[in-house]
């Protein structure tokens, strides 16, 4: 078996040395994953000049790398099947689209490919040493640590952290995309990614209950949909292989969408997902001058602001749609009621514009408590951002199927966009919502004085 494997490896090497003009990501078979692979780190440089055909670089040959530009390293994680990461090409092209930089794909597929996760994990520090040698050479050629950016996925996030530690946190930036949790959870900072590893560390946690790391690891830690289950991902093992990796991989797709110009995902700094969903965390920054942080490539807009915090860390929450471009549009629905008794229940709100587009939000995470003459502000999240709302529909529900049907007597409802506070706020006065019955109405512009 071993001998056969050795033979196959030699054959592959011979092949790649002779007829490979554009080096490409190492493609291995599941067979390699079963027998395991020895570490071999390949660095491939992409630039705007060399967009489709990479150049193999190493610490003795920097190729077309222009040290005066930003250099972004992309480091993948565990590869249980040996295949190249499906998102790599998109990530490289997306980065080159937004900025004229050097992008280096760190291909450690030989090392990461094994069915035994511990074996891949045990190679992370060695990959970091190879990257350190390369960066040292860049520095000799005149590069600055400020311009070095590492994007690490899963185990790759910890590799980026190990490189950062070797430079005492002087690297420009590290982005961790769902940093690996298993074998790293609960480890001290020196054994994992940590906010001290770069001048700015931003992290997206998308699978905290399985493959990802739960606790904050950066200056800003984004938890899409609370960080647990991502919408659109299979909920059961019947979903096949996707069941295992969909949540984990979502962090990469969210980051990717920040490189495209479809929409920007805004996140809300908050202590908990629950508080975010209850609408308690919509005033970004103090004293509300700072706009909310953006997820992904432009997250470092918040760097200077976070530096002033002690410690310079925050968690940020947001919900996403189930597919690209993932954005959801946040609105507040302010409701004042005048029922004599307290009513508890949820509201479903549907918006329709003149063109007939409809978008709906169920505000059902926790029943709201409606108390006479008290304003309740509910956070509604819509898939589409309808600019000119023609009609609004509301459904009130207490969740009970049997028993009396309740009414919610609404003195005033107000709809206001969080992303576009300058947009006119929409109001409606004097409504009675019969439980579980849809009430449709045309809103009016709220009087300016009451805003
Ligand atoms: C570095 O890359 C150059 C050009 O591809 C190659 O000739 C050289 O052997 C490499 N050096 C090492 C140490 O791998
Ligand atoms: C390197 O980048 C700098 C700044 O972007 C540019 O002025 C210079 O011409 C580049 N050098 C080469 C060799 O392309
Ligand atoms: C997002 O924008 C890119 C161009 O930046 C486009 O190619 C892509 O189709 C868009 N995706 C969606 C879902 O709109
Ligand atoms: C609304 O519908 C029109 C026509 O169906 C479509 O072109 C437009 O993109 C939609 N607007 C939004 C915000 O989805
Ligand atoms: C335009 C350009 O610089 N192309 C280069 C891309 O990289 C390959 C090596 O992988 C060079 O041969 C090309 O000259």
Automatic annotation (TrEMBL):
Q: How does it sit in the membrane?
A: Peripheral membrane protein
Mind telling me which GO cellular component terms the entry cites?
extracellular space; plasma membrane
| Residues annotated as domain Lipase | 37-326
Question: Which keywords are on file for this protein?
Answer: Calcium, Cell membrane, Disulfide bond, Glycoprotein, Hydrolase, Lipid degradation, Lipid metabolism, Membrane, Metal-binding, Secreted, Signal
The positions flagged as active site in the entry are 154, 178, 248
GO annotations under biological process? lipid catabolic process; phosphatidic acid biosynthetic process
Q: Which reaction does it catalyse?
A: 1-hexadecanoyl-2-(9Z-octadecenoyl)-sn-glycero-3-phosphate + H2O = 2-(9Z-octadecenoyl)-sn-glycero-3-phosphate + hexadecanoate + H(+)
Kindly give the Pfam families that the UniProt entry links to this protein. Lipase
- Kindly list the positions annotated as binding Ca(2+): 192, 194, 197
Domain of life of the organism encoding this protein: Eukaryota
Specify the signal sequence span.
1-18
**Chief subcellular location:** membrane
Protein's cellular compartments: Cell membrane; Secreted
- GO molecular function ontology, one term from the record: metal ion binding
InterPro entries of this UniProt entry? AB_hydrolase_fold, Lipase, Lipase_LIPH, Lipase_N, TAG_lipase
The protein's role, per its UniProt record: Hydrolyzes specifically phosphatidic acid (PA) to produce 2-acyl lysophosphatidic acid (LPA; a potent bioactive lipid mediator) and fatty acid. Does not hydrolyze other phospholipids, like phosphatidylserine (PS), phosphatidylcholine (PC) and phosphatidylethanolamine (PE) or triacylglycerol (TG).
- Write out the similarity annotation: Belongs to the AB hydrolase superfamily. Lipase family.
Q: Tell me what this protein is called.
A: Lipase member H
Tell me the lineage of the source organism: Eukaryota, Metazoa, Chordata, Craniata, Vertebrata
């Amino acid at each position: 078996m071993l001998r056969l494997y050795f033979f196959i490896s030699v054959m592959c090497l011979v092949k790649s040395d002779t007829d490979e003009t554009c080096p490409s990501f190492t493609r291995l078979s599941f067979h390699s994953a079963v027998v395991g692979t020895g570490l071999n780190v390949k660095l491939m440089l992409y630039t705007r000049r060399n967009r489709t055909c990479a150049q193999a670089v190493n610490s003795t040959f920097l190729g077309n790398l222009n040290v005066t530009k930003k250099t972004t390293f992309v480091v993948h994680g565990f590869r249980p099947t040996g295949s190249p990461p499906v998102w790599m090409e998109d990530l490289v092209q997306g980065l080159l689209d937004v900025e004229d930089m050097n992008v280096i794909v760190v291909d450690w597929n030989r090392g990461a490919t094994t069915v035994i996760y511990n074996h891949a994990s045990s190679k992370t520090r060695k990959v970091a040493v190879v990257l350190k040698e390369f960066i040292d050479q860049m520095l000799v050629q005149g590069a600055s640590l400020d311009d070095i950016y590492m994007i690490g996925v899963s185990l790759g996030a910890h590799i980026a952290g190990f490189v950062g530690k070797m430079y005492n946190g002087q690297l420009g930036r590290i982005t961790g995309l769902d940093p690996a949790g298993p074998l790293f959870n609960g480890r001290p900072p020196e054994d994992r990614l940590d906010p001290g590893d770069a001048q700015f560390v931003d992290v997206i946690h998308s699978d905290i209950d399985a493959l990802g790391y739960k606790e904050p690891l950066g200056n800003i830690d984004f938890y899409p949909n609370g960080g647990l289950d991502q919408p659109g991902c299979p909920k059961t093992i019947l979903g096949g292989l996707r069941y295992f990796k969909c949540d984990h991989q979502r962090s990469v797709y969210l980051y990717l969408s920040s490189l495209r110009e479809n929409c920007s995902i805004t996140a809300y700094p908050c202590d908990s997902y629950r508080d975010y969903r209850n609408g308690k965390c919509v005033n970004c920054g103090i004293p509300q001058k700072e706009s909310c942080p953006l997820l992904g490539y432009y997250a470092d807009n918040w760097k200077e602001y976070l530096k002033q915090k002690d410690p310079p860390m925050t968690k940020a929450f947001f919900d996403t749609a189930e597919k690209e471009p993932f954005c959801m549009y946040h609105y507040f629905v302010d409701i004042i009621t005048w029922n004599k008794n307290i009513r508890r229940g949820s509201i479903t709100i549907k918006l329709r514009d003149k063109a007939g587009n409809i978008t709906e939000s169920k505000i059902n995470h926790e029943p709201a408590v409606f108390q006479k003459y008290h304003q309740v502000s509910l956070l509604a999240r819509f898939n589409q951002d309808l600019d000119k709302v023609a009609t609004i529909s509301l459904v009130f529900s207490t969740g009970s199927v049997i028993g009396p049907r309740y009414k919610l007597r609404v003195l005033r409802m107000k709809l206001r966009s969080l992303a576009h506070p300058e947009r006119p706020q929409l109001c409606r006065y004097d409504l009675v919502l019969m439980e579980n019955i849809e009430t449709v109405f045309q809103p009016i512009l709220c009087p300016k004085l009451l805003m």
